[in-house]
Amino acid sequence: MNTPVNQHKSQFVAVASIAAELSAVMEVAKEISLAAANAKAIAFRAGEKAKGFQPITDFINELAKETIELVNDINEHALKLYRLTVKEHRMSEACLRFEKVAVNAAGAPYAESLRHSLQQARQRREDCRRQFGRHVSELLAQLADVMHPARAARVIAANSRIEASQAGEYLQSLQAVAESVDHAAQIIHDKVHKCRSALSIINTDD
């Protein structure tokens, strides 16, 4: 069981780690979108030789957009987690101060008046913890959603290789696009996995 100080430190580190990983996911998603635009231009130049590749570029672009939208939503939850961690830390500090004052004031006149303030601080701290847990659960669900376009991108990359093989002199250019999409999808998968691991650490520390 972690002390409150260590627990909050762990939460701060985890939330900061998630923010960094999400930033990387966003950059990769933008790269996928750029790759889709480049592929579309190549497929247009290739004409009939890359006819089957042209609709794939639209799918790639849609996946990139979907990922960017999901990450934007996730970033909002990550920001809420950070704010709740700060708030809970402050409430915990307030509880400790009230408890020390209550101990020192034991038997003194009006000592009972401290009880209400201490109960309020404890209640607010518990409210923060409940909200934090709820946001963690929602964030885990959203991270699972990001995995879907990543998996779809890998399937599309495989189909892209097949279609690129029939593109004649444009083969290497379109193969490069397929490889970049596949690589980007793997990076997104890894980054999201790290985010989920960081959240698991928070849950373990609770």
What's the rounded overall pLDDT mean?
81
Summing up helix and strand content along with how strands pair, one would put the structural category as mainly alpha
What is the tally of beta strands?
0
> What is the level-2 CATH architecture name?
Up-down Bundle
**CATH fold description:** Four Helix Bundle (Hemerythrin (Met), subunit A)
Fraction of residues in helices?
over 70%
What string gives the helices and strands in order?
A: HHHH
| Beta-strand fraction estimate | under 5%
Parts with pLDDT < 50 across at least 5 consecutive residues: none
Number of domains: 1
Distance between the termini: 8 Å
Query: What's the level 1 CATH class?
Result: Mainly Alpha
Radius of gyration: 25 Å
Biggest sheet character? none
Shape: rod-shaped
Give the SSE map:
Blueprint: H1 4-46, H2 54-104, H3 113-164, H4 171-205
Helix pairs in contact: 1-2, 1-4, 2-3, 3-4
